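Morning!

As promised:
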Amino acid sequence: MDGIVSITDMSFSYRDWLSSRADALCPPVLSHVDLALEDGSMTLILAPPDAGKTTLARILAGLIPKYMDGALSGTVMVDGHDLSKTEPWELVHCCGYVSQNPLDELIAPTCEDEIAFPLESLGMPRYEIIRHVRAALEAWGLVSMREASAQELSGGERKRLLLAVQDAVDPKVWILDESFDDLDVSWRERLMDRISSRSNTSVVFGSRYLDEFHGTFDRYGLLAGGRLSFGDEADIALEFERLCETPYAASASKSVPGFIPVSDAAGCGRSVMPLHVMEREGKEHRLSCTDVSAVHMRRSMVQERPFTLSVPRFSLLGGEVVSLCGPNGSGKSTFSRLLCGLDLPLAGTFSLDDDVASRTVLNRSVGYLFQNPDYQIFLPTVKEELAWSLKRAKIPQREIDRRVGECADLFHLDLDETPSTMSFGLRKSLQAATYYLLDRPFYILDELDSALTYATAFDLVNLLRHNGAGILLITHDRRFADALADRNYTISDGLLSEAEEGA
Amino acid sequence: MSQKQGSSNKVALRLALVAILTAVTVVFTMIVRIPTTKGYINLGDVAICFTAFTFGPWSAFIAGGLGTALADLLSGYAQWAPISFIVHGVEALVIALLVRSRAGRDSAEAVVPLWRKILAGIAGMAIVAGGYFVGGGALISGFSVAAVEIPANLAQSGIGVVLGLAVSQAVRRAYPPVRSLSW
Amino acid sequence: MTTDTYVAGTGVLYRFDPRAKLLLMVLLCIWFFLPVSLAGAWLVVLGVIAAGVLSVGLRRMFRTFLTILPMLAFMILFIPFNVRSGEPLLVAGPVVLATREGLLQTLRLMSRFVGVTFVCALTIQSTPMGKIMLALRWYGLPYKASLVVSLAFRFIPFIADSFSQIKDSHRLRDPNIDEGKGRKGYRSKLGDMLPTLTSALVVSLRAVPSLAMSLEHRGFGLPGKRTSYHVLETSWRLFTDLFISTMIPVALWFLFAVR
């Protein structure tokens, strides 16, 4: 039982909310996990999305099962505290957790208050707090934003704010959940330097294996199927890629270099189904615009005033996959909202098959899958959720049942499950499935890959384009875009333009 | 080590719940509004009734009262804030007390007969209309103007009760963990 | 949606201690309900407006005035219903349209309404929300209560933002967008809002456990006394400001009280 963290034979299952009994449980998220960490060690644990890394991190911080009902067995010791007998606030100095989704974590009205909050809880004298807050703001490049609120910051700035809070408290164990995501290269290096100083014990959870990780950590682990295993770096990385990128196979329109097709799906994979690309009746649709401009509101107040986004030329044909790449806050969402008719451009118009398309026409022809699938979920079962739009369209009940059943099979959904308590991946599939049933000629997929495995994302794209729909992929991941898209658009400095072939 | 479920100290959870319900009330009050003399007809009552039908009396009282008062402050009707705090706070408290079931709330569908919910809703409407008549009449506009407001207030809180009840049912079914939040 | 009522500035009002300002606000609001002469009440209203124009500017003051304009119009329209039996002022045939007493009563109500409105508006426009909370804590508001308010402010923009995206998202999913627009009855209009409201509530409630976790993870619940990063300085200025805050209403009372 040496070391600062020791987990022995720990299993955890969430409460099953479908059952009316309070002690009914879902299948375990983590089973028989063992983990021992030396003081000052650095560990990288790779895990596909939805594999339970947030659950594990929150267990270590003493927050589960206090706040998420479920059953925990085994022992978890952090810095001499038995977590079954410890309240979360007793762990402030021992275990710091930086969440994957910063908006979940941020609680104060401004950046400086955010950093000051835990220090106030600890009863630190005011002059000490001032010193710590200033140091943390400077270290993470947030001085100019000290009075900005969380809502005004960009994704990367929010991540840095969380790291600044962690830095100010400086707990013994740092648990970093996807903290490298959304950070620019220079900040990633900064973070790597910070944890490489080994003044703390660090555990990094990741769902992308980055080259920067190579050779820097003491141990490499893989969390999948509820189990945690350790091994040689190369083996772990390879096994991880295999889990995430299978079973993407022949069904895609073009072969994808760098993705290893493996027919035997394991872990997070799905089975490959034959795709029959049905031709739409009549001609192929074409959505286009020329010389459109719009006011683009920046997410970050630090970047001054709103500016104008201009789109000299854009087109999307039925059946093709086109990507739109650009950094956070560059205007990708602004353009998407124009394209599906939610906002009106300042100048210019959109046309569908050479006719000017009104907002209502765009609303009905372009399905926009928001990054957050929860925006659409409001019914108690998958079945009702899928059937809702069809009912509104006054389709006969028997036909609805047939289509919904078929669609659930395609998207691997269980008709009786409760959407709001499904995993993120399944909620995303449900969101795609509702649009699939709407049968729109065009879809915009916003950051589809951000919390899904490549394999799942590919599957969803293929299902949505099955009957000749044109797809616009919004992403900041070039690799994902290159793997799927026929053409690429990029946004930089307020200008949307088509990328050169092979650029 | 076994379950640490039901840790006794859940102060943070209660605070979080009340804070978020307050924010929801503010947003519902401010985002949809139809101008009237008193300012506007809004969906604030939907949020208040939702809270009262779904959660306990105290969270309903604080979230309902504080939420509407903050919304008044933010939209430049500061002079109404104290009246709104009391009227809507009491509205939420009374509704929540009337629909409170003796059985534990964690049992899947707390069995409160519909007539009791409707009764509670009517009591809530009466409190809103009466409260604004007395408060507004005595402190702000005089009773003759306050009397004219009664139908508008009744309509607004009536819509609130009906939609609040519907949304409460829908949320309970769509998001079952809501059962673990109430106090 | 804005949650910021503060208007940056440097006038006298801004240099006044927030604790004293809150005291002055409450005392002035009470003052308007005391038996003071009507002319005195309107003079004070003019004084408050002048102070406002000098500190937050004419435009701001006008915007505040616009919010109460409909109410004022109603009050004027309803003069005929106030105090029916009195000295007739305006007569149309056999009907007494307005009485002297009715008019005076309306003017009294309007002075209170306008006065209280501008006093409150000026206070929140010239004081940042954080300072108001600190001042309230100085007056004894418990920490947990101020935390609830500050957390609510943190989540208002988040929920407002989610709400509008949810509305859009349901709009794109609805096969009957804009169908029969304008012909829809109230019932179906309200029914159409149900999906949006439900999703908005679910998205908001999902944030509750994470917020609670985050609070405890940041040491909320520790038994020791919390320290405070922001403080309101306590110096001789506080006492002079508090003294001024008390003296203004008292002086006004002696000037305009009806005996």
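Chain B is about 70% helix and 5% strand.

Hope this helps with the figure draft.
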